[in-house]
Amino acid sequence: MNRNPLAVAAFAVALATTSGAASAATGSVATADVNLRAGPGTAYPIVRVVPQGARVAAHGCLADYSWCDVGYAGARGWVSASYLTTVVAGTTVVVGPRVGLPVVTFTAVYWDRYYASYPWYYRGPAYYGPPRGRTASAGCGPRGCAGTVTGAYGGSASGARGCGPRGCAGAGTVTGPNGGTVSGAHACGPRGCVGGRRVVGPNGGTRTRTGGVRW
User: Which of 17, 30, 46, 93 is most buried, judging by how many CB atoms fall within 10 Å of its CB?
Assistant: First the structure.
């Protein structure tokens, strides 16, 4: 029987592609009812619940094998590796380094690919991810004290206050993560106090207020 060479080649390519896709994931079983989450952490939204005993396709895990990227019932997400088992050399084991799953990372591309239709998508993965580093520093000297704090999302606050022979004064600035600032200053002496505040929005708009009290 004559066969079309192009058809045979196309079939071979399709078979190879299908086999590659199948081998890209490892069959695993959920050991309990477990949440399939939108990212590798309990702060991420729940996509759906994977029931105990359900089979999932594990596509890879974080480098420390704490969370794994899995597919279940048409959904894609992350499950704690401690709730997944698979068979290695005839033995059922908890998913870990010996299983040999690929090491994968969680990125915004993953979020965009699988969650664009979900109501919480617009917040982005950074909203649910682990908090970024916070820093704080402060110190005092003979004339007063000063300190600075940087928040997890990039905002900061700094201030200083001191007193001398003629009175006391202080100033501070708060900068939001989107660039807006609020700054203020005040000073008090024998004749009263004066102070002011200036607000600058992230788009450049400003508002200033000053005032004082005289005794």
Answer: 30
Judgement on whether residues 74 and 122 belong to the same structural domain of the protein: yes
Q: What is the residue range of 72's domain?
A: 5-128
Domain end residue (candidates: 109, 128, 147)? 128
Same domain, 77 and 141: no
| Cβ–Cβ under 8 Å, residues 57 and 68 | no
The pTM for the full model equals 0.53
Average pLDDT, the chain: 80
Taking the C-alpha atoms of residue 165 and residue 168, their distance in angstroms, rounded to an integer, is 8
pLDDT of residue 178: 66
DSSP 131: P
> In a 3-state reduction of DSSP, which class is residue 81?
helix
Domain boundary among 84, 108, 128: 128
